[in-house]
């Protein structure tokens, strides 16, 4: 257990000595502010009328109230998180190959499973911290805008939906680690992320979003136009199976594949 904690500590040091935390934090910071901007446009029709095309786009988001705003945040983390979370985990795993430090890493007196698990836990913790940051900033922006329908029940429900969508999206990042390990770098996982994101949209439009793992978080957020729902049953099984497959397959790849 001490070796695992030490490995996680080292992974965090490598992470925070890079530009990844700053880039991902800056990128995610756009979510609550862009959502707040759309809410501001909807709340001030005179200002919206002068913007023309932007006003029309804002109306797609719904009305200027807490339910619409929190739903927008959940949808953004479900869709945007597939790319940002995947980018984080592809860097954590792919950098060892790109920087050619994989040989030095595997020469350490640590089991390969411990190294992989430390990388996964580091990426999960940072992704969840980013999600919490988005939520807190989002609540602050919503409060500053003085959005209506901000009852305790509505806000609590919105927070729960956001937390569920963020957690599910983070869990779906494990197959990216497998692709990064097999592809030995960044390019393959980036292509995989784009492919799954596009396919998720197509499957959702076809009406099977509840059965395709990368569509499930967005489906749960209500991005398909229906009300948000808590994932359960076959959808939850499919998503957890996909996450477990990515994690276990990555561990097996690092243990059994020739890394040299």
TrEMBL record:
Pfam families, per database record: ABC2_membrane_4
Transmembrane segments: 20-42, 72-94, 115-139, 159-180, 192-214, 234-254
Coiled coil: none
Source species, domain of life: Bacteria
Keywords from the named record: Membrane, Transmembrane, Transmembrane helix
Stated name of the protein: Bacitracin ABC transporter permease
Organism: Virgibacillus dokdonensis
